[in-house]
Amino acid sequence: MVGEEGAFVLGWDEVLTEEELSVTLKVLCMSEEEFKEYKEQDGWEDDSEEEENSTLSNEALSRLKTPCKKLLYDSVLLTLESYGADLKAEQDLLNNKEVYKKLSRREQQALHVRYGQKRILHQLLELVQ
User: Fold this and answer.
1) What is the DSSP code string of the chain?
2) CA 118 remoteness from chain centre
3) Maximum Cα–Cα distance for the chain, whole Å?
4) Chain segment 31-88, per-residue pLDDT in tens
5) HSE value, Cβ hemisphere, 13 Å, CA-based, for 94
6) Which residues are in the Rubisco LSMT substrate-binding domain (predicted)?
7) Where is pLDDT greater, at 50 or 24?
């Protein structure tokens, strides 16, 4: 359901892999009985029109049902734990000009990417609390 990468792509304003995330949340938040019924009815294809008309904007994420919000929240926490440093440490490193200048160009770019990823994840945490 999540594609070859095994991850969802989030932007500042919306989920970029919204169909995959929407289906995944729907399935993971179903009871076993609901899932069996959904599978038997070939629900995978019946919902395509519904999903095309709904976007997972930040506003829509904040309106998700509680089980889906909890699942996303816990997933984001696990993802953040996989990083070596927290958002504050990355921000401090970016703000420390002396230390930042000592980093190679590649390390500086990686720092900016990690910091951006963490900011998006923290924003998602706020949306689904």
Assistant:
1) --TTTTS--B-SSBBTTHHHHHHHHHHHTS-HHHHHHHHHTTHHHHTHHHHHH---BHHHHHTS-HHHHHHHHHHHHHHHHTSSS-HHHHHHHHH-HHHHHHS-HHHHHHHHHHHHHHHHHHHHHHHT-
2) 11
3) 62
4) 999 888 888 887 655 555 444 445 788 888 988 999 999 999 999 999 999 998 999 9
5) 15
6) 4-121
7) 24
14: β partners: 57
Distance CA 121, CA 108 (A): 20
Provide Rg for the chain, Cα atoms. 18
Which structural domains are found in the chain, ordered by start? 18-128 (3.90.1420.10)
Q: Alpha-carbon distance 19 to 33, whole Å? A: 23
**Dist CA 99 CA 97 (whole Å):** 6
Question: How many whole angstroms separate alpha carbon 18 and alpha carbon 126?
Answer: 18
pTM of the complete model: 0.79
The two tokens of residue 87 are 């958002």
